[in-house]
């Protein structure tokens, strides 16, 4: 018996222009009759969303609040994060919102933020790593790490480590990392994960996103059977503030096909809310509510060796102190 839905999904997946744009979202959501994410009930669950003040993070925080979750908005600006909390509370009627002000590129701030969060919340049911942007110029954090790697690789690694016991105690729980389809163009790098004087923002971003997807699999391998489910997801090409600011030429050409922010956030929200498939697997890379391969190109697959994976895990572990 031919599974025509699978055939259609596969046909859409092959060319990235159909898979990553609103075309893929529209066709797949109708074929599979997706349950709208705002119809889930998350009352009693606590969800932490980093990068929650705009774009995908803001959209996720608002939908999660609408579903009844206690949402912890994690942002680096107190004014913007508190404004986002207040606006979401007004629009959803959900008063169980909290704020943690912490820069995900700075380890000391992450430790302080994690301590505040753990002191105020008995549960952490879902942790969503969404913070991070494409930096056009090379910048360093206080410890000398390139800012993209600091905020999107080392920062999430540290925060996950700090919250892991609480996530275990709240099982079944989930850690969701918002990656990017841009990682498909990057091999796995360790020694030169942080670009130097030849810095190119888009390439550095892709390197960090590849590392995120690899670490997601490694977290699942290092902590099996503990009730914590690790997922990475890419949103497709969505019309976010980050795309508008960092990739204006791309946006100008592709704007009619770009997904809305809500469409881009859909799969991450589904992974956070649904008690079916997201709790039946671990370590997967998801797009449009289906697990996807982590390689599309031969040269990136050849770079993904067990030795290089172990080196990435060891390097991240050596850079943090829990």
In brief:
The protein has 322 residues and is of the alpha/beta class. It is built from 13 helices and 8 strands. The protein has an 8-stranded mixed β-sheet with strand order 3-2-1-4-5-6-7-8, sandwiched between helices.
Using the CA coordinates, give the radius of gyration.
18 Å
Shape: globular
CATH architecture: 3-Layer(aba) Sandwich
Structural class: alpha/beta
The number of E-state strands comes to 8
**What is the terminal separation in angstroms?**
52 Å
Structural key phrases:
322 residues, NAD(P)-bd_dom_sf, KR_dom, Rossmann fold, alpha/beta, SDR_fam, 12% strand
Task: Describe, in plain words, how this protein is organized in 3D.
The protein has helices at 4-13, 16-20, 22-31, 55-66, 78-92, 107-120, 147-169, 201-222, 241-246, 248-254, 261-273, 298-303, 306-319; strands spanning 46-50, 70-75, 97-101, 126-129, 173-178, 228-233, 284-287, 290-291. It is an alpha/beta fold. The protein has one domain (4-319): Rossmann fold (3-Layer(aba) Sandwich). Strands 3-2-1-4-5-6-7-8 form an eight-stranded mixed β-sheet, with helices on both faces. The longest helix has 23 residues, at 147-169. It is globular and about 50 Å long.
